């Protein structure tokens, strides 16, 4: 069952001890890019409670198929074929339908299609590295891609990113806006990564690691990973002051 | 013992990294043919109500360098002060205005630009009107959790002086970090400073 009433309540306060702090010097780029003053805390207003919601009509047929959405006709991206699926929920455990999920990733060799990318791994002419999908009425989403490769990056002398997919998520309010990364079960690079380690709580990291989902794997075709996403929950509006009252 | 509250924890944020443009503005980053256009590139059309404005700016780091790999999104009300969102309890926003824009910082000079309209005033929780403002959200490599701030308008001195959010600022001189500068008619500059003396006020909201 989904709640079809539009959500109009304020969001639960964001737990900023759960998210990575802004200043995490082992991830060196944060040193000059982290605000140093206290944030101004304020209960949500309509400016955060509302947000853009995208209709399924924006989606093209191959938007959720990174194996083919950049490939030449009749060709396909090279790499381990995988499906990523999951649910988008809020902190109250309610499904979030119509959530826009945009993903981007390196190719199977760990190389991004970007002019500033310096890694010597080869570009795949059939892989662009972006895709998107929108959750259904039960909050479910899925897309198909190739498993991205790990890659080295200039931070410490020998830092490697674990295999990961970047996720951008829109719920129904701009205060829910979230960008995160999904990691893969069993990757030994996860716990060595300075970006993963910006997150203070081990449990929060574990929730970014997608397990292999053999039950939903397609035999002779693609393995499946399951990645559930939780957005901020909303307070009930029942007893709140009316906007035009008081 | 009591029952468990059983709320889920929000998925932890991770940096958008250096290649956020691939995912969110692929056409602008040279990956064409996947989507017909980048989302958020166009906010309005000929039928949109309201005064057309242009906002330019940069996101500037603690070394005074503009971010060239950043990404900025804005969210705002229409000319009548209504949000084009199912969560807008008052309904009735201008259907010809999305209210949402997205722009990759330029790869050379770091500049972002939005062609939009001037928003109307939106009520605060208690019914007082907020000054016209635009919500900004900034992500980039080195930003672990997206940053929220607001842009207010320099010509709205009276409305700004009674804005419920601006009134909460303990250090009044920081208010100017949230007010754009006029750059000729209907054109504004809003530079966002991540650190330093001019650090922008960011919101926990
Ligand atoms: Fe990456």
Automatic annotation (TrEMBL), chain A:
User: Belongs to which family?
Assistant: Belongs to the intradiol ring-cleavage dioxygenase family.
**Entry coiled-coil feature ranges:** none
Sequence ranges assigned to domain Intradiol ring-cleavage dioxygenases in this UniProt record: 84-112
Name of the featured protein: Protocatechuate 3,4-dioxygenase subunit beta
MF annotations from Gene Ontology: protocatechuate 3,4-dioxygenase activity
Question: What is the organism field in this record?
Answer: Mesorhizobium retamae
What are the UniProt keywords, alphabetically? Dioxygenase, Oxidoreductase
PROSITE patterns, per the entry:
INTRADIOL_DIOXYGENAS (PS00083)
| Enzyme kind, highest EC tier | oxidoreductase
Pfam families from the entry? Dioxygenase_C, PCDO_beta_N
E.C. designation(s): 1.13.11.3
Q: What is the lineage of its organism?
A: Bacteria, Pseudomonadati, Pseudomonadota, Alphaproteobacteria, Hyphomicrobiales
From TrEMBL, chain B:
Q: What class of enzyme is it?
A: oxidoreductase
The EC number(s) given in the record are 1.13.11.3
List each copy of the Intradiol ring-cleavage dioxygenases domain by range.
41-196
Q: What is this protein called?
A: Protocatechuate 3,4-dioxygenase subunit alpha
Q: Which family does it belong to?
A: Belongs to the intradiol ring-cleavage dioxygenase family.
Under NCBIfam families, the record lists: protocat_alph
Q: Which gene encodes it?
A: pcaG
Keywords for the protein's UniProt record, in alphabetical order? Dioxygenase, Oxidoreductase
Q: Which domain of life is it from?
A: Bacteria
Could you say which residues form the signal peptide? none
Under Gene Ontology molecular function, one entry of this record is: protocatechuate 3,4-dioxygenase activity
